Amino acid sequence: MFKLVMKSAIASGLVLLAIQSHAAVKQQPVIIQGALDIETDHMVQKLKNVKTKKMGGWQFWEGTYEGYPIVISRTLMGMGNASAATALAIEHYHPKAIINQGTAGGHDPKLHVFDIVIGTSSINIGAFITPKKAVGEGSNALTWNKSFNLLPQNNRPEEESRRLIFQADAKLLAAAHQSQSRYNKGKVVDGVIGSADVWNNELDRINYFHTNYQTSIEEMETASAAQVASLYHVPFIGIRVLSNNLTNQDGYNPNTGVACQDFVLDVAKTYLSSKAK
C-alpha cells in the first residue's frame, strides 16, 4: 500500500512539473513592435485574453494569437523610443524573439506599395562623420561618411554598441520565408532596412543610400531595436511594408499597415510552432 501511495505521489509530482514546465514555456512570448496605432491596433484586435500594461510612456498588450503567446509593443516613433521600448520589453517579458514591423518608404524603384521587405539586415543610416570644411565652404550630405564602417571583431559590449549593421536571426528569417507564399497583396522580398531619425524626401540622397548601403526601404525604428536586442542576445528580425515610394511616384496608402500586421502575425505563429517541435 505504501509503495502504491509513493508511486502515485511521484506520478502526480511529475505531471505537476510537466504542467509547470509547459506554463513556463508559454510565458515566453514573441514581442511584435509597431511605432504607431496604425501599426499595432489591428494586431491587438486579433489577440485573445488581452491584458494591457503601461511602462513609462510605452504601451504593451499581452495575449494569445491562435494559442501562441504574443505581446504587442507600441514603441512610439524614432530611434530613441524604439530602443527604450525594446529594453523594457526584454527586461519584463524575457521574450523568445522580437519582430519589429510597420510601414516604410521605398528606396528601390522595383518595389511598390504593399510589397513587403523581410529585413535580412538593418542598418543605421543616420550615423555619420562629416568631412572637415572651413566656414563658408558649405555642407553636402552626399559626401558624409559612415561613422563606424567596421563591425566589432571581439564581441565586446563596447564594440557591439558601435555597430551599424544588424543581421536577422536565421530561424526568424526562415519563418518569414515560410509565410511568404501566404501573402497576396504584393511581393515579399529580402532586403536591407535603413533606420534613422530622418525623413528623406531628396531623391539624390535616397539613391545614395540605395547605392552605397543597398537599402530597400527606410523608416525610424528597426536598427535601434535590433541593436538593443543584439546586446541582450535576443533573436530579432525587422519586417516592413512599403506605404509609399518616391523613387517611382507610388503614393501613400494607409491600408498597408494592416497588411503588414497580418503577415507578421503569421510569421510569429510559424516561428513559435516550429520552436515547439
From TrEMBL:
Protein name: Adenosylhomocysteine nucleosidase
GO CC annotations on file: cytosol
Classification via SUPFAM superfamilies: Purine and uridine phosphorylases (SSF53167)
Signal peptide boundaries: 1-23
GO BP: L-methionine salvage from S-adenosylmethionine; nucleoside metabolic process
Keywords: Signal
Record domain Nucleoside phosphorylase: where: 30-248
Superkingdom assignment: Bacteria
Pfam families: PNP_UDP_1
Cross-referenced PANTHER family: 5'-METHYLTHIOADENOSINE/S-ADENOSYLHOMOCYSTEINE NUCLEOSIDASE, 5'-METHYLTHIOADENOSINE_S-ADENOSYLHOMOCYSTEINE NUCLEOSIDASE
Gene3D superfamilies named in the record: Nucleoside phosphorylase domain
GO terms assigned for molecular function: adenosylhomocysteine nucleosidase activity; methylthioadenosine nucleosidase activity
